[in-house]
Design a protein that fits this description.
Elements: H1 9-27, E1 32-33, H2 35-42, H3 46-54, E2 66-67, H4 68-78, E3 85-90, H5 94-101, H6 104-107, E4 110-117, E5 126-127, E6 130-134, H7 138-144, E7 149-152, H8 156-168, E8 173-176, E9 189-192, H9 195-206
Helix pairs in contact: 1-4, 2-3
Bound molecules: 1,4-dihydronicotinamide adenine dinucleotide.
Length: 210
């Protein structure tokens, strides 16, 4: 199947939503779906959907709809979900513990291998059988384990320092919860998370209704 390369960032940002909805359809034994039906479920326009899905293959057939399973498989490949990722969490406070406790990431192929903190009171505590270790061990841990993603959940002032230890040990992916723009080499991919962005979108849409 002929595929186009260079999927735009805007399409990439929409893919997780396609992934979520299409997997739900597979679970419900839906074999085919039209762009119009998908549009009603997912909230993107039918033409947006046709345009997006056209980026990575010829799945839709006029009057026939999309093959849901094939589309799911393709989206898995593009989202990198046919690979397994080893992750660690740095900072086992509120956010770090919440992420460690969220087992759905494992189901997607993100395997948590270690949790690190600086607070002596937290060291030795276990979350899902993983012991929280002293941050001083992280260097050795990274040398001896193939970690692909570090999840940074430390206070802003410690985030860059922590990132540098990770980068020195060849970790190429950072999921950064600290509210700071990390300085990283080009080959390191940083995905920043800001829950407040979503909250501010809500307040923007809500402001005239209350
Ligand atoms: P917290 O204070 O509960 O946890 C931070 C943890 O990091 C503590 O356990 C602390 O001992 C540990 N820590 C501090 N320095 C460290 C170091 N050098 N190495 C290893 N561990 C270290 O804080 P919380 O609420 O979990 O927030 C964590 C980070 O996430 C903060 O930067 C906060 O601003 C940010 N945050 C981000 C949100 C988002 O939407 N992205 C939402 C809420 C918080």
């Amino acid at each position: 199947m002929e595929k186009k390369k260079n999927i735009s960032m805007a399409v990439i940002r929409r893919l997780p939503k396609y992934h979520r909805y299409l997997n739900e359809l597979v679970k419900n034994d839906v074999d085919r779906i039209s762009s119009k039906e998908l549009s009603e479920k997912i909230g993107f326009t039918a033409s947006q959907i046709r345009q997006d899905l056209n980026c990575f293959g010829d799945f839709g057939q006029q009057g026939y709809g999309y093959n849901v399973k094939e589309l799911c498989k393709e989206i898995d490949i593009i989202l990198g979900l046919t690979k397994e990722y080893n992750t660690i969490i740095i900072g086992a406070g509120n956010i770090g513990q919440a992420i460690a406790n969220y087992i759905n990431f494992e189901k997607l192929g993100f395997s948590l291998k270690g949790i690190f903190d600086i607070n002596p009171k937290l060291l030795g505590l276990k979350i899902h059988d993983i012991e929280i270790q002293d941050i001083d061990n992280v260097d050795d841990f990274l040398k001896n384990n193939n970690v692909n993603i570090a999840i940074i959940c430390v206070p802003r002032k410690s985030a860059q320092k922590v990132a540098e230890i990770i980068i020195k040990n060849n970790v190429k992916g950072i999921w950064n919860f600290a509210p700071v723009d990390l300085v990283t080499p080009e080959d390191v991919i940083v995905e920043n998370v800001h829950l407040s962005d979503s909250l501010l979108t809500l307040s923007c849409l809500l402001k005239d209704k209350i």
